[in-house]
Write a structure and sequence with these properties.
Elements lengths: L1 H26 L7 E2 L11 E2 L2 E8 L9 E6 L5 E6 L3 E9 L5 E11 L10 H4 L1 E8 L5 E8 L4 E5 L11 E3 L5 H4 L6 E6 L5 E5 L13 E6 L11 E7 L5 E7 L5 E9 L3 E9 L9 E3 L1 E6 L8 E8 L5 E7 L10 E7 L1
Parallel strand pairs: 15-19
Antiparallel strand pairs: 1-3, 2-3, 3-23, 4-5, 5-6, 6-7, 8-9, 9-10, 10-11, 12-13, 13-14, 14-15, 16-17, 17-18, 18-20, 21-22, 22-23
Protein name: Esterase-like activity of phytase family protein
Keywords: Signal
InterPro entries: Phytase-like_dom (IPR027372), UCP031900 (IPR014567)
């Protein structure tokens, strides 16, 4: 008798789930993916870190082969995202948000190889993509893609495509001294288009030493709006990160400034992440720029090897800030996609 009741109960449950999935399919709604994670596992109600308000985070480790993500782009309406990985990977999909704007899931995630000049390459040196930028046209619509590579230091421009960088790329002039003078594993990791149309680039540089913990990083802005046509279009300045931190990503702010993502790792403290605000006045030739720390993620807060950052306007005012971590395809790391509000 007990077995019969259990069987009937399981039958009803399975039919209910099947009906729910069928209804979703009829409405064209796909189930969301990604495991929600709190800002602070020890205190799940914590919703603020520094000057940022937490708006949700997802663990998307290994989702459809996604991993190693180093650069991130999110559409102005928050519906779509694209990311690139340092193993020559392009990931794209859709984002879901709750009615109050919290990040709740991802859908239709796809991953594919990132083509380079010779097509799909297997050499790590050729496909070590570290930063992703989507150009905005003069009318405000989405344009071409630019990807920054290190090891074989270069910038490649890809034609406009909703799936992310695809097709046959063309080279973009890099700042003087980058191609032959950047550290092999410390090239251009921060790239952004500012609201006035100029481009911003910051070199990750060498790891800081105890003797020189505040060594400036090389940085550049273009002299005028648009994609540079020659090396001389890049104007140099210096960017100073916090001691032992290295810049790994940049994104524009509506006031003409930018947010810079910085990362530090140590055997004792693990991963640390800073989000730093650069005012518009710092983004000029010859400047010695030190940004203002907006927030710092350290244990016990959500943290990992955060390398990608993207921004978009918040519907109710302020700026929404997305960051993504590079799990290095390591079983000891995770791929997190987190959302914050900068009021």
């Amino acid at each position: 008798m007990r077995t019969t009741r259990r069987f009937r109960w399981m039958t009803v449950l399975l039919l209910t789930l099947a009906g729910g999935c069928a209804a979703m399919a009829e409405r064209g709604v796909e189930p969301t993916e990604g495991k929600p994670v709190p800002l602070d596992r020890e205190r799940p109600t914590v919703e603020r870190v520094g000057g940022l308000l937490f708006r949700g985070a997802l663990d998307i480790t290994g989702l459809n082969g996604v991993g190693g993500l180093s650069g991130l782009w999110v559409s102005a309406d928050g519906a779509r995202f694209s990311a690139i990985g340092d193993t020559g990977l392009v990931a794209s999909g859709r984002l879901t948000h709750s009615a109050d704007g919290r990040l709740t899931g991802v859908q239709d995630v796809q991953a594919r190889p990132l083509p380079v000049e010779e097509g799909v390459a297997s050499s790590k040196r050729r496909v070590d993509a570290e930063e992703l930028l989507r150009l905005t046209k003069a009318d405000g619509t989405e344009g071409d893609w630019i990807v920054a590579f290190e090891r074989d230091h270069r910038l490649l421009r890809y034609p406009q495509d909703r799936r992310g960088p695809a097709g046959v790329p063309t080279p973009v002039p890099t700042p003087t001294g980058v191609t032959d003078g950047s550290p092999e594993n410390g090239g251009l990791e921060s790239l952004a288009q500012l609201p006035d149309g100029r481009l911003l680039a910051i070199e990750e540089g060498e790891e800081d030493t105890l003797r020189d913990p505040t060594r400036p990083r090389r940085a550049w802005v273009t002299a005028s709006p648009g994609v540079p046509r020659q090396e001389a279009d890049w104007l140099p300045f210096h960017y100073r990160s916090a001691p032992r931190f290295r810049p790994t990503g940049a994104a524009p702010l509506p006031d003409g400034g930018a947010l810079v993502l910085e990362r530090r790792v140590s055997l004792i403290g693990g991963w640390s992440t800073r989000i730093v605000r650069l005012p518009p006045t710092a983004l000029r030739a010859g400047a010695d720029a030190t940004g203002q720390e907006v927030a710092r993620l350290e244990h016990p807060l959500l943290n990992d090897n955060f390398e990608g950052i993207a921004t978009r306007p918040a519907p109710g005012g302020g700026t929404l800030v997305y960051i993504v971590s590079d799990d290095n395809f390591s079983p000891f790391q995770r791929t997190y996609l987190a959302l914050f509000l900068l009021p």
